[in-house]
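Bug #77: duplicate submission created two jobs. Keeping one. Sequence:
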Amino acid sequence: MGELAIDFCGEWHEPTDDQVFDIGREGDLEVDDNPYLHRKFLQIERQNGIWWLSNVGSILSATVADTSGGMQAWVAPGARIPLVFGQTRVVFTAGPTTYEFDVHLKTPAFRQESSSGDSVGETTIGPVRFTDAQKAIIVALAEPMLRREGTGFSTIPSSAEAAKRLGWALTRFNRKLDNVCEKLDRVGVVGLRGGGGKLATNRRARLVEHAITSHLVTSDDLHLLDTMKGSPDDE
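Kept job's structure:
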């Protein structure tokens, strides 16, 4: 493997030091023939000894994180971020489909160690606490990604599909989804609200991207789909 390698669906790419590596509907990494995806969306190139990931699209954003969940960034159109970890995960959504690929760096500038702790009943992200019912909402939306092994793509369920998965009324599901997004928005998670305090239309996708890359939910939480199925409303 070269200095930098990209893994998407088990397909490996190794950009050269003098190459601008294009990722999108077309390019060096042709992700998918998805009309919602930019023809050229992301670029990877080496400048002054540093590898950079740039968003050259006009609409879509990407969530970038180290695989321990300790660092996360939202790369908006026109922005770029240095690739400094041994393994960096890139997640983005185009239309109904969410994509994920990993960037491997042989000589990373930083090494991130993960720390884990046991939690019962509630999950805490900084000052935010989630009940099992709220966490079950996130799991229901992220289920396709949680069940997928490795990088690739999946479709995020609609709110109606996720509500049915939990055996809940859609109004209950949407109310709790509002609460989850508002809590995360208050602690600085971007992309969950639109202008003027309104919830963003693509909040389900952004919530899943954040939850997966930050390890807010993992495959160990899939049991909540059965535990909370048909549970009485606690509000």
